[in-house]
Amino acid sequence: MELNFYMPTKVIMGKDCIRRNESLLKEMGRKAMIVTGASSARSNGSLADLEETLDSAGITYVIFDRVRSNPTTGSVYEGAELAKKQQVDFIIGIGGGSPMDAAKAIALLAVQEVTEDELFAGKYRREALPIILVPTTAGTGSEVTPYSILTNDKAQTKTSISSPVLFPRIAFLDAAYMKELPVITTINTALDALSHAIEGMLSVRATRLTDQISQESIRIISGCLKELIDWKESRKGNELSLTTREKLLYGSMLAGIVISHTGTTAVHSMGYSLTYFKNVDHGRANALILPAFIEFAAKGDAVTVQNILKAMNLDSIAEMDSLFRRLLGDRERLSEEEIAQFADIAIRAKNILNSRIAPTREDLVLLYRQSR
Ligand code: NAP
Ligand code: FE
Question: How far is the CA of 97 from the centre of ligand 1 (A)?
Fold first, then answer.
């Protein structure tokens, strides 16, 4: 048996985990840059906890709060300029996948001169400032991956930059920060995490160990889906318990460990066009495609698909499809012209060949048609 498993991030989960680990922050340096989105880090209490802990540790900091969903290269170069000017020792990203991914790119660009073309071509040194991440959505798993996914306008898609130096040193997981996360974002991010765990099992790089972690993640996240549907359909305020929030956060972290080793597959490659051209949330974009892709994959790898369904506690792909239809509601319209354009872009993505049952361009067209 061959195995190559590397996960250098210290994962600390639990109530008040930032405040309880001041000593770990002290080891990182004397000055930090905090990277966040527009406002959620301020309103969910995570930024205040971090600021208090840094103050108490005698660490000074600057805040860069200009990251928006699906981070642009413009924003990360701007952040890196500030990090250089302020001579910070380390970077702390708080938020969903967007600020966390931006924090990673900023950490890399703060220590080397790299053009945008070089960045997307993977032409950079294995060097970055130390990174700490605090996820406030339960979806991307970015807190334990070596990836930063940025909007690539030249290629009209989203492109992943990847390096072992982008693994965070520490990930602090406190589900209390997700208390006010709206129902739609909670669903979309949970489905992103579920997609990571499932795609991991369908990847050419899957191993016995990643399959075990995937199945645990799939079981945990799938066990929360009924509650998410009830919450969505009741149209009431926040009804998700902290226990369920913790399960989602734990399950998405596990799925992040999976994709750190397996990468994602055709599902993510196809989803990027839905986000880039139609502004569909990342997790939703994957979830729109996933049931159709599972059906496609079952033709070549029925055993793995059976194991995925078993972990989801479902009997058939049809059951999965109807579950996803309730979670996703009305679907986006896709014209034949759009489908042809998206298939042309997706077929060039490297993650297509990362799928054990790899689709052709014609397959991609059929999969997009089934997903609308
Ligand atoms: P996001 O774009 O980071 O955030 C979505 C929205 O949720 C933002 O409006 C944000 O507001 C808000 N939000 C975040 N936390 C909140 C909280 N606790 N309470 C209330 N609102 C909150 O969404 P995401 O789905 O987490 O991340 C998606 C990005 O991650 C995509 O760019 C995707 O490509 C990437 N991704 C990365 C990896 C990886 O391995 N690196 C894997 C999968 C996906 P604010 O702007 O105010 O913060
Ligand atoms: Fe994802």
Answer: 4
Per residue in 125-161, pLDDT (tens digit) is 999 999 999 999 999 999 999 999 999 999 999 999 9
205 burial level (CB within 10 Å; 0-12, 13-18, 19+): middle
Smallest CA separation from ligand 1 atom 8, residue: 69
Q: Which atom of ligand 1 is nearest to the CA of 68?
A: 46
Q: Which helix (H) or strand (E) holds 266?
A: helix 266-278
Atom 48, ligand 1: residue with shortest CA distance:
37
Residue nearest to atom 31 of ligand 1 (CA): 70
Query: Cα dist. 370→32, 240, 327, 333 in Å?
Result: 47, 32, 17, 11
pTM of the predicted model, to two decimals?
Answer: 0.97
Looking at residue 235, its pLDDT comes to: 66
φ, ψ for residue 152 (rounded to 5)? -115, 95
3-state secondary structure 212-244: HHHHHHHHHHHHHHHHHHHHHHHCCCCCCCHHH
Task: Report residues whose beta carbon is within 6 angstroms of any ligand 1 atom.
Answer: 37-41, 44, 69-70, 95-98, 101, 136-137, 139-142, 145, 147-149, 158, 177-178, 180-181, 185, 189, 192, 282-283
Q: Distance (Å, rounded) from C-alpha 51 to C-alpha 22?
A: 11
Report the distance separating Cα 309 and Cα 79, nearest Å: 42
User: Which one-letter amino acid corresponds to residue 41?
Assistant: A
Task: Give the percent of the chain with pLDDT over 90.
Answer: 97
| In contact, 170 and 91? CB cutoff 8 Å | no
Query: Which among 69, 174, 195, 258 is the best mutation to test ligand 1's pocket, defined by most ligand atoms within 8 Å of the CB?
Result: 69
Name the helix (H) or strand (E) containing 171: strand 170-173
Task: For residues 37 and 110, give the distance between their C-alpha atoms in angstroms, rounded to a whole number.
Answer: 19
